[in-house]
Amino acid sequence: MSQINMAQPTAEQPLQHLTLNKWFGFSDGVFTFLDYIPNKALGLFSIAFAGDFEEKHIVSIIDFLATHNQTVTAICQYQPDLGLAPALCFYAENAERAINPLVLQEFSNTLDCQLVQVATPPNLYVPGLLVMDMDSTAITIECIDEIARLANVYDEVASVTALAMAGKLDFSESLNQRVAKLTGIEKSLIEELKNALPLMPGIKALCQILKQHNWYLAIASGGFVPFAERVQELINLDEVHANVLEFKDDKLTGKVLGTIVDAQQKAVILEALQQKLGLKKTQTVAIGDGANDLVMMAKAGLGVAVHGKPKVVEQAQAAICEGSLLQLLYMLAIPLEKQPTL
């Protein structure tokens, strides 16, 4: 087996000698090329990204994982897209229990990077399903709060939204309370807001790449149909599910029509799409930021909190705590099979 000795010098050595998409063993400052690819069905994959990595970071991460009874057996440096910096993947074949994402976040902050763990990771290069929340996930705002701003009841509504997203209020009950405060808002103002939706950084590029690999993309939102349909246009989604606002004389009545898209309904949507598409669970991904996304995320093969509240981060399988949503590719493109070159 070929070896790369990085013991001299130790602390400031960059990792350009690690061939992208190749797996290495690591011991005492020496990388040893491995002639096998890890088994995606076994163990855990810890992914460090959004950092400037040197050998000292590898040593720190290996030691950290060891304190949680996870022995790293292989390491890979990879770059899923030219729009992303290289990441490091640490494979622990015999690891069975993932580390709490909040603990991972606390540790990774000391290294100025992000660290997640996934089991049986999805494969970007075969068809899959991504179901996403909309407000504060696909877009940077909470639409209901912005409608409330137009009605001069922003503070009242936003405080209820925050409690609902943190899981401290029943979502459906809180939605009805908030929408009732919007009575009388003119439809034209809703249209103005709809046409100025700010997309979350990275979401458009992420969706473009997923579509290139025949992924099916959907929104399951506790927000509202006009905004979900506009996001569908902006990022080329296959379908959207959201709540229907009632209008009378081109003004909001303060009521929601039909079945409310709450936590349980989001999960129903994901499972129905998985069945319709004939996909294995491992090829399903759900992303969101609020407590009402947790049931859907638990039903997916991979549930990822994005800029999520602490309760959501803690209960998700993985979390993107800052930066572009394009970083989701780190979890979908671990080099576990022969893949196309960039």
From TrEMBL:
It catalyses: O-phospho-L-serine + H2O = L-serine + phosphate; O-phospho-D-serine + H2O = D-serine + phosphate. Its cofactor is Mg(2+). It comes from the Bacteria. Pfam families: Hydrolase. The keyword Magnesium applies. GO terms for biological process: L-serine biosynthetic process. Pathway: Amino-acid biosynthesis; L-serine biosynthesis; L-serine from 3-phospho-D-glycerate: step 3/3. GO terms for molecular function: L-phosphoserine phosphatase activity; magnesium ion binding. Belongs to the HAD-like hydrolase superfamily. SerB family. This is Phosphoserine phosphatase. Keywords: Amino-acid biosynthesis, Hydrolase, Magnesium, Metal-binding, Serine biosynthesis. Coiled coil: none annotated. The active site is at D133, D135.
